[in-house]
Amino acid sequence: MSAGLVPITGPSALGGSPRRFLHLAVTLAITDFKLRFFGSALGYFWQLVRPMLLFGVLYVVFTNFVKLGDAVPHYPVVLLANIVLFTFFADGTGAVSSMVDREALVRKIQFPRMAIPVSVVLTAAFNLTLNLCVVAVFALASGVEPRWSWLQAPVLIVLLAILVLGLAMLLSAAYVRFRDVKPIWDVAAQLLFYATPVIYAVETIDVDERIKQGLLLSPLAAILQQFRHAVIDPGAPTAAAAAGGAARLLIPAAILVAIAVGGYLVFDRMAPKIAEEL
Amino acid sequence: MSRAPVVAVDDLAKEFLLPHERVHTLKERALHPFRHRGHDRLRALDGVSFEVAEGEFFGIVGRNGSGKSTLLKCLAGIYRPARGSIRMRGRLSTFIELGVGFNPDLAARDNVLINGIMLGLSPREALRRFDAIIAFAELEEFVDLKLKNYSSGMQVRLAFSVMAQVDADILLIDEVLAVGDAAFQQKCFDVFQRLRDEGRTILFVTHDMAAVSKFCDRAMLLERGSVEAIGDPADIGARYLQRNFEHGEAPPGQDPERIGDRSAEIADAWFEEDGRRATVLRQGTRCAFKARLRFHRPLEDPICSLLIENDQGHPLFAISNEDGGTVTGSHRPGEEAVFSVEFDNVFGPGRLYVTPWMLHDGGAPIIDRRRRMVSVINTAPHRSGGLVDLPAVTRYERAAPVEAPR
What we know:
The complex is a heterodimer of chains A (278) and B (406). By secondary structure, chain A is mainly alpha-helical. Helix content of chain A is 68%, strand content 1%. By secondary structure, chain B is of the alpha+beta class. Chain B has 2 domains: 242 residues, Rossmann fold, CATH 3.40.50.300; 116 residues, abc- transporter (atp binding component) like domain (Coagulation Factor XIII, Chain A, domain 1), CATH 2.70.50.60. Chain B is 23% helix and 35% strand. Chain B is built from 8 helices and 21 strands. In chain B, helix 3 crosses helix 4 and helix 3 packs across helix 5. Chain B is extended. Classes of the chains: A mainly alpha (278), B alpha+beta (406). At the A-B interface, strand 1, helix 1 and helix 5 of A face strand 1, helix 1, helix 2, strand 4 and helix 3 of B. Strand 1 of chain A pairs antiparallel with strand 4 of chain B.
């Protein structure tokens, strides 16, 4: 009589069909990307211009006034690459309010809830891809030579994406219940910008060695440091060297895993209730 | 049930916690971690069980707050049930709102694809159906126009066309038809009929009883989160209307315009349907008006009479025992009697007022007249607009042309 009936258990983080999950996440991401600079004359161009302008300002300040970059080879390339990577981090973790922003969808249709933060990270990843092309052109023009160690770059970017996705899940799920997560995260992201070697090179700053090594305990800093070593300046210390030994990298690795797993678990737990709590 | 069910719901329950004081910030949590936060438990659904067979058009009706929408959201997988099980067979599409995911800044083309994907199509399927969707909406010329430049009617048409082209086996539809004019609603129902004829199963949540009795095969009445009745749409519709009015306005109080010499009084008056007192009547059934009379002085052949009016004061029906050929006889003080009038209820839907009165034999003076003493709600499956809906037969025949007389 009831053969073939499938139980309906309510919403979840990933839902039943991976294909539908993918379709939704990609569709939402593309739509967002299209709309980001909608109505502006230059369109997608702004997506490139924005980090470039930030780069321009910081470059002028830190080469002419503060002279942070004097001791750093290829400082402009390092600065640009770091800004592009940090922009990806900031855009992706901007998913904090995504569940609430997409309330109309969450309350009206069934879909794997995770598609929403994933779509935000995907949109950020599209931008990152475009921006990295600019970085590559800029690096080659500045005399950075292609090397085999560039192959580390995709691995590092995947690690960064996992970190960003973990935070996106954690923050967006928490924001449904606690609306002050967003202002807190805004401040935290600002702090991270300065606590991470984005505008400076970690080995050149004039602070205690233990503080320098401490900075590298953040997975974001470790990834940026290794990216600089592998892609731009082989003379720069590796993440392991800057942290004071390869064993010390276990700490940022552990933090990365904890954020990714913890973010998933929190989101998974919250997913069935999001529609009711909004 | 002859056919196998495609939707089986068993003992479904859903609760919502409604905190008295919504705690939204970490600070409040941190400062008052142990403060007791009271909350109300709102039982939106409780022990709901039903089955829907393949190809059925199943109506779900109920008053506001009866749990219809919660049920639909549980079926759709938007809420997780607290207890019980929902099982389905086949692909499900939910239409709680038309045009989910529509974005005013994008062209109709993009919106159709996005909406289709939201409703469960793959991008390739959405693309393949695109032309059919636009054709159905009759918007071929406006494909590249941004949605914000569409009129609201065009937007609804577009959204509805996507829905009509989504091929799900089971469709959950929540009063999307509340929007749009009569012609559009008719088009919607034509589509539903077509979908049903193709073997799809439709679960339809609505307030519109006319639609339920016209289109649904079966219907379910929800009341306070429980199933009150499942069955024939016409019966369910009547019960729903009854429910709706029972909780509506209270019947008017005692009449200040009571006149007469009170040698007898109309102590009580009421309507009966199926032998029971009723405050809500159903059109088309036989009902009775009854008045209990109490005599205080000796009376010979008093005349008992009643007048039924609608809420605009139009007299609909008046009758007395003399008109009906009934003799009342002689009465002594302390006696009681019941005057009753039985008739087929052909009145149009709405509130009815009854004014009963008693007269001395010969027509005057008045013994007791209680203006609008009784009020009832008359329900009907549809509103024709007439004061009464007489049992009638319509006929239409082709006639041979009449030859002109020579």
